[in-house]
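From the shared-data thread, chain only:
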Amino acid sequence: MENLCKNYVIAIDGEAGTGKSTLAKNIAKKYNIVYMDTGAMYRCVTLDMINNNVALDEIEKITELLDNIKLEVSSENGEDKFYLNGEDVTKKIREKQVNDLVSQVSHIQIVRDRMVDLQRKLAQGKKIVMEGRDIGTNVFPDAQVKIYLTATAQERAKRRYNQNQEKGIDIPYEEIYKNVVFRDNNDKSSSVAPLKKADDAYELDTTNYSLEEVEEIVMNKVKEKIQIDV
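Structure, as tokens:
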């Protein structure tokens, strides 16, 4: 077993709704390491574009927006809070208008380049668990641990629906399912950092597993690769 005391990266990639965020948060909390929700970063950029009426093809305006954007995250009462230009947008970035555009925004080259650069800077010198769609293939191709999660589209839509209900976000299941299928097609066919399993990643279909079971399986894989100090 390789002992990486100073810093390491646990990269968790996979389809939307596979439980990446919850898994990454639990790992970070259990082992007191940094958690980074890259999806929320793209959601914040998407919301900023919506707020400023910037279209997907207005690259100059998007670049200007990125030059001035301020993203912050803090933990309050055990929950992550996301701030866009000083405003708490934790709930807004999960609403329909953002859901409908975030996948397309994340495929814009300048947005991807800026966010990846920021993610790498934030991870320097840290023990970190990061989740997204291209962490193990693009952001950190040399990550010490790479996990790739999958699940059926129906199961992922059901999970997202239940999560939204808990947060007071009312979006019909049918609409969520269509969005999940669209995200899958868009993410996997993208010419910009497409969603795919890294050659050296461990793949796990979470459809028939509980969150606790997924966490146990993944943590056993993590411990095979690195020494984590509890």
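The chain has one domain: 8-225.
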